Amino acid sequence: MLTYILAMTTAPTRTSTIQEFDCVAALTQFVGQPAITSAPLLIDQEMINRFAQATHDHQWIHVDPARAMAYSPYQNTIAHGFLVLSLLTYWQTSCIAFPGAVMALNYGFDKIRFTAPVVAGSHVSARFALTQVAETKPAHARCTWDVTVNAENASRPSVYAEWHILVQYEDGSET
């Protein structure tokens, strides 16, 4: 059996309701319904520093709190946009599940926009609105989600993205 790609080794904190989609029809029926909101996650300086280390992006606006306090218009460090984007799988698994799926795979993005910074120390969540489901073959779906990432107490969302996920459910055939 293929691994559930979006699953994490450590399960996200489950403070939000989990919306389950156990088949392609359940996904299709959910198109146009109100967005699903994830559990919040604290994006702190330690997380930002670890991301900077992993990506070799040590720009001061992300990793130097003293300099950011003195020179940044945000008076604090801010998270890398790609850090925030990479957390979509965490937020997705905190509020959406695909029981019966043998695989859920990131297929790509359209229309990504970083519209506001995420200041270090912010609690951040994401909203997922399912806008399209295409059954590419029996028990296989390509889902399009409009995603909005919000930091608490921010005047506007931090990220907008159109995210495509492939979901394959068990159908008895070899994969």
Automatic annotation (TrEMBL):
Species name: Advenella kashmirensis (strain DSM 17095 / LMG 22695 / WT001) (Tetrathiobacter kashmirensis)
UniProt xrefs under InterPro entries: HotDog_dom_sf, MaoC-like_dom, NodN-like
CDD domains referenced in this protein's UniProt entry, alphabetically: NodN
Domain MaoC-like: 31-137
Pfam families: MaoC_dehydratas
Protein name: MaoC-like domain-containing protein
